[in-house]
Amino acid sequence: MKVLIRSYFLFSLIAFFVILNFQFKNTRFSFAEKLESTGEYESKSTFLYYFLKYSEWPNQKGIKEYKIAILGKDPFGEKINILKKQKVLGKTISIHKVKSVEDALDCHLLFICDSEKDRYQNIFSVLETRPILTVGENEGFLKAGGMINFIREDKKIRYKIQAAKVKKSKITISSYLLRLSR
Q1: pLDDT digits (tens, 9 = 90+) for 134-161
Q2: C-alpha angle 119/160/133, rounded to 5°?
Q3: How many CA atoms lie within 13 A of 13 on its CB side?
Q4: Quick one: CA dihedral 71, 143, 178, 149, positive or negative?
Q5: C-alpha distances in Å from residue 170, one per residue of 60, 68, 71, 160, 164
Q6: Which end of the chain has fewer CB atoms at under 10 Å, N or C?
Q7: Which DSSP symbol is given to 30?
Q8: Cα dihedral across residues 44, 117, 55, 178: positive or negative
């Protein structure tokens, strides 16, 4: 009887792990979001979520909600609102559209729109050592002082990380995000 119970238990355990492995293989998130299956800004919204999820701020334990600010002419529209339903470490995400960098000083992630490229020097001088993850989508964004820049490669959205800039702001980005960076 004991042999039968052990065999059944072992079979159940193996079946559980096979099913679990199958589930994870089929639902894994791809950091190279395909534009064909989702729109560009739905994909970029997903990336913003993962940038929050896989980063750590100096005051991590004191965070009550994660704040994303969008500076400039917002290209996301309503698509960014999908993040309001998500949580990072059990905390909600709020989205704020701001008109000046000074209005974004309490955010965790600042998406700087292309419309602000002429003001990069001023923006980055204000943010220089603050723990605010800056994300953009302009070719000169990283050279100007940004931390993460979206790029298009083939029909996919990818990103580049300026690790030295991130480290200077005392934000820690997961090695997982760094490995997948271009």
Answers
A1: 999 998 999 999 999 999 888 889 999 9
A2: 55
A3: 6
A4: positive
A5: 11, 18, 22, 18, 10
A6: N
A7: P
A8: positive
CA distance 91 to 113: 26
What does the block give as tokens for 73? 């002419």
**Comparing C-alpha atoms, which of 122, 165, 119, 163 is closest to residue 138?**
119
Residue with tokens 């000169």: 140
pLDDT level of residue 1 (50, 70, 90 thresholds): low
pLDDT tens sequence across 65-124: 999 999 999 999 888 988 988 999 999 999 999 999 999 999 999 999 999 999 999 999
